[in-house]
Automatic annotation (TrEMBL):
Cofactor requirements of the protein: FAD
Compartment(s): Cytoplasm
Enzyme Commission code(s) on record: 1.8.1.4
Cofactor note: Binds 1 FAD per subunit.
Domain FAD/NAD(P)-binding: 7-336
Leftover remarks: The active site is a redox-active disulfide bond.
Underlying gene: lpdA
Pfam family, one: Pyr_redox_dim
Organism the protein comes from: Lysobacter soyae
Listed name of the protein: Dihydrolipoyl dehydrogenase
MF terms in GO: dihydrolipoyl dehydrogenase (NADH) activity
Keyword Cytoplasm in annotation: yes
């Protein structure tokens, strides 16, 4: 084995949390290494984690492609635009997605080089004393000694015991990004972010999509009014979402994948051509830690950390999907930067109360802060103001009048406690709520900020005005 190499910071994982931590640490003058095991379709190392390779970025590429196709058949005629032959080339669509993925994974490698982050490609395992052994893809093993080690191992798809992934008939998010043709019938287990987004992709392209959700409520984490509007629109689009439905058995036969399930009507069966299992993700901590490191895992396999992402073992930190908190790439971004700055002796903090959530369906859903249901349960007195996109000139001009913006503020102080949106481009608009809450602003602050006309952001402005019952473009 080669001589042990020493670094100020060793990061295990090159996903959103890990690569942010590595680059920021290097910017701060720390000698930094980052270890990542992932390979791209071409068999070459591909930094960026699940997010860039098989998650956030490729799914948005397919969502955009499928939306263009959907608009051709459902919206363009309103603009006077017609097509004689509407068709989709799935191979070209997937190829475009792959090209985007390669561009961004290669971009991180370039950033590592520019910032002098040393990359190691293989599987990293933490040993006692902040030593990381790396089994590289070429078969060799190297040892890295880190004054600080940051664990950013990410997460894996949860596999159901009765629905094992085969990469062909029963797939996870990765498989659903690479179908070679539009499945005539697609089954989806789980009506969460992944299930709804990828279900939407193939539904727009002509697949008959059935979504099985065990919970009785649709998008229970979202504002009830937002979820209600979204459910109505998804139904119009042809998504068959079955709530309170528990899948019990999966069998692959000659005529397709047989899904046995139980709902209010009793035991039933549905045959589909492909089945996407999207029931959540779990921390990818298997084989990450030697037995004597002192780093602890909870009963969900997550690494235990304090509010500063420290494990309690001197110099060992953990961030991203492998620790508590929402499994969101941008949460990992912020934790990675915060930990790098803490290591360098600077302040570092992540405010979990202002982390935005987005579902990139059509319409989009986004929110930050508390829902009305949470505020009622906590006994917090609040005021609410909402405004529909149907009254926003820009939205109507875009033929996207569905949805609304809701602002929730403290009844006494007027401080914004939450913002909930469903409609066009709300993945961008939600950040007005994030910024207002981060600066502890009030609904009145937001209402007194001049917003451009005509713009979608006017819905935010009028919703904030509606909190004090002074919206101009709706009856208060």
């Amino acid at each position: 084995m080669a001589e042990q190499q020493e670094f100020d910071v060793v990061v295990i994982g090159g996903g959103p949390a890990g690569y942010h931590a590595a680059i920021r640490a290097a910017q701060l003058g720390l000698k930094t290494a980052c270890i990542d095991a992932a390979l791209g379709k071409d068999g070459q190392p591909a930094l960026g984690g699940t997010c860039l390779r098989v998650g956030c970025i490729p799914s948005k590429a397919l969502l955009d492609s499928s939306r263009q196709y959907w608009n051709m058949g459902h919206i363009f005629n309103e603009h006077g635009i017609s097509f004689a032959d509407q068709k989709i080339d799935v191979a070209q669509m997937v190829g475009r997605k792959d090209k985007i993925v390669k561009q961004f994974t290669g971009g991180i490698a370039a950033l590592f080089k520019a910032n002098k982050v040393t990359a190691f490609y293989g599987f990293g395992r933490l040993q006692k004393g902040n030593v990381v052994s790396v089994k590289q893809h070429d078969g060799t093993t190297v040892e890295l000694k880190g004054t600080n080690v940051i664990l950013a191992a990410g997460s894996d798809s949860i596999e159901l015991p009765f629905a094992k992934f085969d990469g062909k008939n029963i797939v996870d998010n990765e498989g659903a990004l690479d179908f070679t043709e539009v499945p005539k019938r697609l089954g989806v287990i789980g009506a969460g972010v992944i299930g709804l987004e990828l279900g939407s992709v193939w539904n727009r392209l002509g697949s008959e999509v059935t979504v099985f959700e065990a919970m009785p409520d649709f998008l229970a984490a979202a504002d009830k009014e937002v979820a209600k509007v979204a459910a109505r629109e998804f139904k119009k689009q042809g998504l068959d979402i079955r709530l309170g439905t528990k899948c019990t058995k999966i069998e692959v036969k000659a005529d397709g994948v047989h899904v046995s399930f139980t709902d209010a009507k009793g035991d039933q069966e549905l045959v589909v051509d492909k089945l996407l299992v999207a029931v959540g993700r779990r921390a990818a901590t298997k084989n990450l830690l030697a037995d004597d490191t002192g780093v602890k895992l909870n009963d969900r396999g997550q690494i235990e950390v304090d509010e500063h992402c420290h494990t309690g073992v001197d110099g060992v930190w953990a961030i991203g999907d492998c620790v508590r908190g929402p499994m969101l790439a941008h949460k990992g971004f912020e934790e990675g930067i915060a930990v790098a700055e803490l290591i360098a002796g600077l302040p570092g903090h992540v405010n979990f109360d202002t982390i935005p959530w987005v579902i990139y369906t059509e319409p989009e859903l986004a929110w930050v802060g508390k829902t009305e249901e949470q505020l009622k349960a906590e006994g917090v007195a609040y005021k609410a103001g909402s405004f529909p996109f149907a009254a926003v000139g820009r939205a109507v001009a875009m033929s996207e009048p569905i949805g609304f913006v809701k602002v929730l503020a403290d009844a006494e102080t007027d401080r914004v406690l939450g913002m909930h949106l469903v409609g066009p481009n709300v993945s961008e608009l939600v950040h007005e709520g994030v910024l207002t809450m981060e600066f502890k602003g009030s609904a009145d602050d937001l209402a007194r900020i001049c917003h451009a006309h005509p713009s979608l952001s006017e819905a935010v402005h009028d919703a904030a005005m509606a909190v004090a019952k002074r919206a101009i473009h709706k009856a208060n």
